[in-house]
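quick one before i forget lol
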Amino acid sequence: MSNMILCQGTYAKKPYYASDDCRNLYSVEELCYYLYHNAYLLDDRFVNGELVDWIETELELADLAKAVKRYAGRPDALTKLVCDLRDKVGYYDNEDWEKLLGEIGRNNRLTVEERRKLRADAFLEEGKYALASDEYEVLLRETSLSQTKLRAKVYHNLGVCSAGLFMFRRAADYFGKAYETFPNTESYVSMLSAMKLYMTRKEYLDYLAEHKESYEDSLEVERKMEVLKLDWPNQASKKFLDSLMSKREQGGAFYDGIESLSMNIKQQYKECVFRNRG
C-alpha cells in the first residue's frame, strides 16, 4: 500500500449509502476499502441493483457495472464483486484481496445466527449502540427459548448498549433478564452497577437490604466504582477539563472550550443513537 494509487471512475455527487454500517461511499476506491474492513458485516444482499446503478451513473464505470449486473442478487455475488474489483480496479495487492476472499468464505459457512451475532458484537465494539441493539433484538426474535446461553449473552450485550446510551434503568432490566435466562455473576454485578447509577442512594440500599444474597456482589460493584474513580485523573476527558478550568479567568476561551466539549459529546451521542440516512 506504499505505492501511488491511480483512482478510477469519477467522484460521486450522490454517494452510495451502505446501510449495513450507515456510511456514504463516494468512489470505487472507497468501495474497495469498505469491503476490506467490513466483510464481517456483509453478505450477498449487498450486491443489488442499487449498487449497480450507482457504479454506472455516479462512478461512470460502465464495464464494471455491466459485470456486476450479471450476478447481482445471486448466490456468491459478494465473492464475484470482490473478484471483479480485484481484476478491474486493483487498489489492494493480491495478498490483501485473497485475505478478503478468505474472510468472506468463512462468513458464508456461518449460520445466520452466528453471522448476526458477529455483526452485532462488531457494532457494539465500535460504540454503535443503536445498530448493535437492532441486531441483538432481531437475534432474540430469531432464536428459540431453549438457546439459553446465547439469549443470555444477547440480553447482557443489550444492557451494555443501553448503558452506553446512559439509559441505566433499561440497562439494569436487560442485565436482569440475562441473569434470569442463564445465571452468571457478570450480569448480576452489571445489573447492580446500573441500578446504583439510576437509583437514589436510599432506593439502592433498600434493594440490597431486601436481597441479602446481593451482599458479595455489591462489594464487587463498589470495588469497580473505586477503580474507575482512581483512574479518572488519567483519562483524556479529565485532563481536558482541567485545562479548561485553568482558563476560567480568560472568559471567552473557557466558554468556547465548554461549548466545544458539549457539542462533541452531543454529536457522539447522536451518532450512537441515530442512523445517518443522508
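fyi The longest strand covers residues 16-18.
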